């Protein structure tokens, strides 16, 4: 796979299959001679050749879709963090109760009832605290036109070689 053998095989077979293809080669599509060589493999009589290029400010519907995706990711992340914090809090309270049970093994019933009331009050506070606050995009996030992904579209080395 590292020697691009699969890519070479698909490139050789693709023109003969007459199917729809998305040819996503960033480096190759930047260079005019590479684009011409790639287009020559797909005859215009058999394939409709379409290029979509994004330059400048994107359309408002695209920006709205990106903002929706950013908000969805943020809501998922906040939800995951809330679940994690709730689980940690439950675990901590359970450990405290177990410790209290060990210590209170010799106490009377009246004292235990008072502790149960305190525990109920703490649970009410937790429920009020757990009320979900609405998640919104920050001003900086609203200014973004594109999502920033964890993996780059093209390596730094390829980018540098293409423009030297």
From TrEMBL:
<feature type="region of interest" description="Disordered">
    <location>
        <begin position="81"/>
        <end position="164"/>
    </location>
</feature>
<protein>
    <submittedName>
        <fullName>Uncharacterized protein</fullName>
    </submittedName>
</protein>
<feature type="compositionally biased region" description="Acidic residues">
    <location>
        <begin position="123"/>
        <end position="139"/>
    </location>
</feature>
<feature type="compositionally biased region" description="Basic and acidic residues">
    <location>
        <begin position="81"/>
        <end position="122"/>
    </location>
</feature>
């Amino acid at each position: 796979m590292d020697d691009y053998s699969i890519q070479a095989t698909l490139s050789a077979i693709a023109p003969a299959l007459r199917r729809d293809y998305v040819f996503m080669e960033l480096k190759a599509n930047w260079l005019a001679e590479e684009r011409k060589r790639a287009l020559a493999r797909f005859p215009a009589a058999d394939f409709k050749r379409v290029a979509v290029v994004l330059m400048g400010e994107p359309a408002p519907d695209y920006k709205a879709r990106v903002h929706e995706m950013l908000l969805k990711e943020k809501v998922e992340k906040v939800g995951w963090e809330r679940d994690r914090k709730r689980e940690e809090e439950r675990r901590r309270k359970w450990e405290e109760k177990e410790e209290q049970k060990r210590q209170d093994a010799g106490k009377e019933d009246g004292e235990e009832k008072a502790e149960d009331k305190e525990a109920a009050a703490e649970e009410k506070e937790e429920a009020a605290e757990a009320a979900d606050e609405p998640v919104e995009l920050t001003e900086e996030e609203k200014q973004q036109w594109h999502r920033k992904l964890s993996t780059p579209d093209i390596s730094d080395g390829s980018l540098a070689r293409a423009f030297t």
